[in-house]
Amino acid sequence: MNIESLRLAILNYQQLIAEYQLERQKLLFKSAETEQEFARQIELATRAEDGGLAAGRKIELLSEMLSRNQGEISDFDKKIHTESAKLSGLQKELDLYLKQKHLEALGDEREALSLQDKLLKKNFESITAMREARSHISQGGLLETYDGYSMLPHRGKFHIITGVNGLGKSRYLRFLARNREVQNYCQRIICLSGTMYDRFPRVSEASKYLCEYFYFGNRVNSNILSEKAPFRILSSFMLGEGCNGLAGSMAGNILEEMGFARQIRLIFSPRSKTNTLSGTIARAERTGLTLELTNTLEQSSATEENLAKLRNKEIQLHDIVFEKGLRKLGLSDLSSGERLYLLSTLALCFCVTERTLVLFDEPENSLHPQWQAKIIKDMVSIVRNMADECTVVIATHSPLIVSSAPNDISFIRDLPSVEPWMKSELYGRNADTILSEQFGLTSPRSLTVASLIQDCLTTLTDVNSEPEKFLAAADNLLDHNIQLDADDPLYDTIKRIADLREMYA
């Protein structure tokens, strides 16, 4: 391929990528509009006296549209990634050709021949790599390529991933779930999510996996959000392999600490009688089973009978009733924070086994700060009791999540990065310290900023005789690049220090 051909190919790829990006953006706007209408129809369905039949039909159509849009967006993402990789290779190749021609013009034949060898080697390596990649995939290699953080976690440890939005935290969790090397080691992968925008693989992919895969998020295959779907998966474990004294004791402890009774009631309904649009079913046809979450929990004829019916798809979980004081609360009666906390911790109590990988995307969502700190402590306690070797990876924006993972078992990484996992030294540190050291943010109300301002004011008293001390103190403060609104009481103070710094410089 000559230089002109390379340039033309690069131009074509640039144009093709631009077209893909434009079409993808159109789909994003279309999807956003559909999601708004979807939410409106959900609200109408909940208010309608007829069970929301009309809204239900529209919801099904909108759900199909959302699913198609997401599929098309995903296709464009793959196309853009593929063509961008080709473009990058062509640009590097063009750079080498131009350098070779330049050296030939200067008469440096040895260096030109060396570059020519590099070009030949580069072409050979590209062809070989492509063949190897195809062979690797056909023999059960990675299910997808990933150009972000690719360091695998340490077995049996806790891992925290931080970083600003859009830098690949959720994609990294998906990469781990799809990674064949990880699947080969794990017996089970458990995916937990505090966000509806997680990127975990769909359950339909599980047939390709070398281990068991369970998704406890709220998305179902048609992209409809369901608060019951993850609890339906959980109910099978509560009646089956998780129905034992250790799981019952730990689950009961969690409930008690949250103010609930240790007793829950599972309500089942016949699958064949359920109206999928209105969700209505005669109360007389529902059956219930009470579980005492104590160290005496064990399988009984009732649990085995209901488990068999669940597996045969004769019944499905209709609700779980919790007791809080004198109140009985179904899933829809719980706050979003209570529902997330209960689902996440109970899933670990009843589902964790040896060599389990737990992936948790944004556990802090909907949780009070006190619960953000508590959920990690509960996770550590559950995992340590339920399995000798369980690996946990958490993606978060919360300094309270970061500070709650014990240093002796925790690793941390801030994206973007190509470095190995670092041992965490942030356990028990205050939020201001973690915001500064791990998230790169300094709170204007932190002790650090207060101390820096005080240094400026102290050195300002002797600024005429020792201006260098004030200048150093002012530089230390201003280097933190503290962003304040004009109506903030500290705004004038820091602005005045900045003005004085310029005056005495």
Structure notes:
This protein is an alpha/beta fold. The protein folds into three domains: 136 residues; 271 residues, Rossmann fold (3-Layer(aba) Sandwich); 58 residues, no CATH class. Helix content is 53%, strand content 12%. It has 15 helices and eleven strands. The strands form two sheets. It has a seven-stranded mixed β-sheet with strand order 3-2-8-9-1-10-11, sandwiched between helices. Strand 6 and strand 7 form a beta hairpin. It is globular. It starts with a helix and ends with a helix. About 6% of the residues have low confidence.
Question: Which short descriptors sum up this protein?
Answer:
505 residues, alpha/beta, Rossmann fold, 3 domains, 7-stranded mixed beta sheet, 4-stranded antiparallel beta sheet, 11 strands, 53% helix
